[in-house]
């Protein structure tokens, strides 16, 4: 398995904010869209996956006012350019991921495998993956 930060353009932005490349465990897929160019355009088909990523921390552990608080709350957009194949299923009202795994194939394409806990899961194959919009919801 290739390191995701080596395969994904702009991964350093996320690593700089979070401190590491996340597995996306317990993150939620908010949207998935696909668009194609008009005829004679010089671009390929693009898919966008928007993910709600959270990190929690325990506050006042062992007391009566114990609680979990958000440490990170981010909307992250992954852009899959040069889409070759996608097979996603079970998109519903809450799409919780176990993880997203990235690997490069021998033909230089990249495969992203979305492993599901509940809701959407599947595989996306494309030429490149990049970080698109990156929104910190706690700012």
UniProtKB/TrEMBL annotation:
It comes from the Bacteria. This is Uncharacterized protein. It comes from Pseudomonas kribbensis. The lineage of its organism: Bacteria, Pseudomonadati, Pseudomonadota, Gammaproteobacteria, Pseudomonadales.
């Amino acid at each position: 398995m290739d390191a995701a930060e080596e395969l994904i353009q702009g991964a350093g932005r996320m690593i700089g904010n979070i401190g590491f490349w996340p597995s996306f465990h317990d993150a939620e897929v908010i949207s998935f869209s696909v668009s194609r160019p008009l005829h004679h355009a010089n671009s390929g088909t693009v898919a966008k996956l928007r993910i709600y990523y959270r990190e929690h921390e325990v506050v006042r552990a062992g007391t009566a006012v114990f609680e979990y608080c958000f440490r990170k709350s981010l909307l992250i957009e992954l852009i899959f350019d040069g889409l070759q194949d996608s097979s996603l299923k079970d998109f519903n009202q809450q799409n919780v991921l176990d993880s997203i795994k990235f690997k490069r194939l021998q033909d230089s394409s990249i495969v992203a495998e979305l492993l599901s806990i509940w809701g959407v899961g599947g595989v996306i194959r494309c030429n490149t993956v990049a970080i698109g919009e990156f929104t910190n919801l706690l700012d």
